[in-house]
Automatic annotation (TrEMBL):
The keyword Signal applies. It catalyses: Endohydrolysis of (1->4)-alpha-D-glucosidic linkages in polysaccharides containing three or more (1->4)-alpha-linked D-glucose units. Residues 1-27 form the signal peptide. Keywords: Carbohydrate metabolism, Glycosidase, Hydrolase, Signal. Residues 45-444 form the Glycosyl hydrolase family 13 catalytic domain. Its EC number is 3.2.1.1. This is Alpha-amylase. Pfam families: Alpha-amylase (PF00128), SusG_C (PF23915). It comes from the Bacteria. Belongs to the glycosyl hydrolase 13 family.
Amino acid sequence: MKTHLRLALLLSVALLLSTSPTSPASAATAAVATTAQAPSDTYYEIFVRSWYDTNGDGVGDLDGVTAKLDYLKSLGVDGIWLMPINPSPSYHGYDITDYEAINPQYGTMADFERLVQEAHKRGIKVVMDLVINHTSDQSPWFKAARDPRSPYRNWYEWATRATDLKQISATGGSLWHPLPGADKSSGQFYLGVFTAQMPDLNYDNPAVRAEMVKVGRFWLDKGVDGFRLDAAQHIYDDSEADMESPAALKKNLAWWHEFHQGIDASNPHAWLVGEVARHHENELPPWMASLDAVFNFPLATRLVDSAKQERDRDIGATLERMYDAFRTDAHGRFDDAPFLSNHDQERVMSQLDDNPEHMRTAAAMLLTLPGHPFVYYGEELGMRGEKPDEHLREPMRWYRSGKGAGETTWESWSAGDGNAVSVEAEQADPHSLLNWYRMLIQWRRDIPALRTGVLHNWRDAGEHVAAWELDDAQGDVLVLHNLAGTPQTVPLPAQRFHTLLKHTLPGTTVADGHLQLPAYGSAILH
């Protein structure tokens, strides 16, 4: 751990020493945090099965997450999101059979409690995946519900004689699924937005709502700091017709508001970030009144496309509009959860056609945005991955050889990444992507405006430079990213932004009212 921290500190100090001396140092300190304990507000998504194996069965486990907390601390993250850890018949865990237990492949409840304790000792929060839109069809609740006389019958949604069994779900598949031997007249068709193995719970039933608040409180009592809410929009957004339905949206928001109030009784500081997979920025703000944050899917597309095309796709202006709308709907409160990719999407390096410079600019943009950015495990190494889903969730690459203590083997690697794409190889290379991520996350600790600043578009940088201004009480900063493979010259205003706080590459200078930004370089000015 000490070695990792020392490397990150040396990188940060080297960057500070290389900043432009054109303005007095005192002018810069107003915008830079004075404490080494400042947060980064950065979260890291972990698929436990693929992370680190401590018992040699080829499957990652909770003790493996605990074993690698110092790696995460050296990266600079303040929180982890654990993909589902409850018992489940599937490898991915998104169809749960017991909401108050641990998947035995991952360990025990004692292992989980130890993980939370050790994470908290290091200042790392733990956010759990909460998958409550649906259960597994192997859940005891659903097995009981097959009997029309069971008290669990109304915990799920069943077709009637009037139901159109040919309805398409909001995710594009069949909405209604038959029990074995069912026909339309039997009423034995149940609703499942995702698959037949994932029957949807009926949130019009007060008993279901009360049970899920109880589940949330159970895990808060275990010490978790919040939840990533899987399929948050699909509690009532079931069919194709519901996707644009104001009534479905209203019911979704009402439920999550009720849930938020319910868990606040256990921990008023618990953080709720929702998976709301909408693709237009104007569809996200309404959710801010019920949740603390939502994953910013439209922004992820815009960031990756801008890096790939080497042109700013109006990032600053779009975010200014979106964030203003967030504050309006959340009554002044604001939090965002930007990201580049997750376990359901092609990995970033694959989206960027294996271009390392584009990967670095995408990361630089992500980690200089306000809110709580999320990094998908292995993203900081440049791991690649394309569909099917198993290939997006392959083992974390710890060693050059792909073999060693803790390496998981439940799935083989498909992307063809070489030895250089590994923690072992990148740890010692000061120019690696891993250390690039460490540097950028450290920037967030050093400059509070990167975490909490109010964003304003910057219109004078040219089409190849993504730029925005971040204002906060400790000082305004200007963030600029050269997306192109050629140097860019950016004119600066007469009275502002002439102190170079941070930059990624040599040759970044401020002189004569202009910023010289090298190819694929980033800079922060005060």
